[in-house]
TrEMBL record:
PANTHER family in UniProt: RNA POLYMERASE ECF-TYPE SIGMA FACTO (PTHR43133), RNA POLYMERASE SIGMA FACTOR (PTHR43133:SF51)
Source organism per UniProt: Pelagicoccus mobilis
Gene Ontology molecular function: any one: sigma factor activity
Keywords recorded for this protein, A-Z: Sigma factor, Transcription, Transcription regulation
One record GO biological process: DNA-templated transcription initiation
Protein name according to UniProt: Sigma-70 family RNA polymerase sigma factor
Ranges for domain RNA polymerase sigma factor 70 region 4 type: 110-159
Residue ranges of the TM segments: none
Length: 174
């Protein structure tokens, strides 16, 4: 095998391992899933273009996360007219948290999956409508034939239950 094939294999392995955590960071600071996916794609492109600059004696995930942070900042500058954006300080703080706990995110992801599977079907559906389909409570209420207030209360309970379940699973795994 030639060295370019080895580099591609190394990059692919490292990016595949880091990508879920990088996406989690991007998603946490980006209000719309479509925007987060666009930023992730730009991050992947930039990471692959700059892979020769990567120092393999250091962790790959935080390096890629740093590139993601700059891509989020670029996106933010382009979106400045939108008042719903997080402040730069908030993005910096979230980036720091994700980078510091980079290796924990796989376990958190597993805990989320397990807790969602353990949730009642109605709760699972509600979480999917809100967070995967990105619907607001009013749209969910229309879809489910209920009130927006009822959806908001149920979502709050679902988030609290999910948070408690995740914490318990993370404590057991620790």
């Amino acid at each position: 095998m030639d060295s370019s094939h080895n580099k591609l294999t190394e990059f692919t392995l490292l990016w595949t391992q880091a990508q879920p955590s990088v996406m989690a960071f991007i998603r946490s600071v980006t209000p719309q899933l479509a925007d987060a996916e666009d930023i992730l794609q730009e991050t992947a492109r930039q990471v692959s273009m700059r892979f020769d600059e990567y120092d393999s004696s250091r962790p790959f995930g935080p390096w890629a996360m740093g590139i993601a942070k700059y891509k989020v900042m670029e996106w933010r500058r382009a979106q400045m007219k939108n008042a719903m954006l997080l402040e730069v300080d908030a993005i910096e703080a979230i980036h720091f948290s994700f980078t510091e706990r980079f290796d924990d995110w796989k376990e958190v992801g597993r805990a989320i999956d397990q807790c969602i599977k353990k949730a009642p079907p109605a709760t699972e559906k509600l979480l999917i409508l809100r967070y995967l389909e990105n619907l607001k409570p009013a749209a969910i209420a229309a879809k489910l034939g209920t009130t927006s207030n009822s959806v908001s209360v149920r979502l709050n309970r679902a988030r609290n239950g999910l948070r408690d379940c995740i914490r318990k699973r993370m404590e057991v795994g620790a």
